[in-house]
Prior knowledge:
Elements: E1 11-15, H1 22-38, H2 40-49, E2 54-55, H3 68-87, E3 97-107, E4 113-116, E5 123-130, E6 138-141, E7 165-168, E8 174-179, E9 184-186, E10 195-204
Amino acid sequence: xxxxxxxxxxxxxxxxxxxxxxxxxxxxxxxxxxxxxxxxxxxxxxxxxxxxxxxxxxxxxxxxxxxxxxxxxxxxxxxxxxxxxxxxxxxxxxxxxxxxxxxxxxxxxxxxxxxxxxxxxxxxxxxxxxxxxxxxxxxxxxxxxxxxxxxxxxxxxxxxxxxxxxxxxxxxxxxxxxxxxxxxxxxxxxxxxxxxxxxxxxxxx
Length: 205
């Protein structure tokens, strides 16, 4: 019997820094809160679109262009994006990739980030700045799920490659990258401490 797996979906999960990232992370966390305090427009946008939480997505979504700290974050992420796109065998030999968007997410208790994808980009991801123990993971959905039609459920014990959903832990200092078409969500934060992350998109030309 000959069976091969085709059309795999890859997710990249790695520490942003090999060593000494704690100081940088503290600087990022401090600036995330400074941005929230300053960003009156973003707080108003979040009240309507991100109930209970704060995101700068609707107001200050290019932080890497205005902050040296976030610019430093961009340079560090670039190395990981280069490694990920090489694994995906994307032909960027004579092309440039670049960060287009970068924004802060602050999730207090019970705040939810509903199922979504990132249009108009090719690589997206999140860097975890502050993740209290027990806070919600990021959950990815099998991109073929809507096309399963009359398929029966999986066996209770099945191989990893046959999962329909997969979760990655939100861990401070870790970076997760994925292709932008991959739908994902974050369930309600069940801790009393705020879950702080920075999300971003990449494009190429």
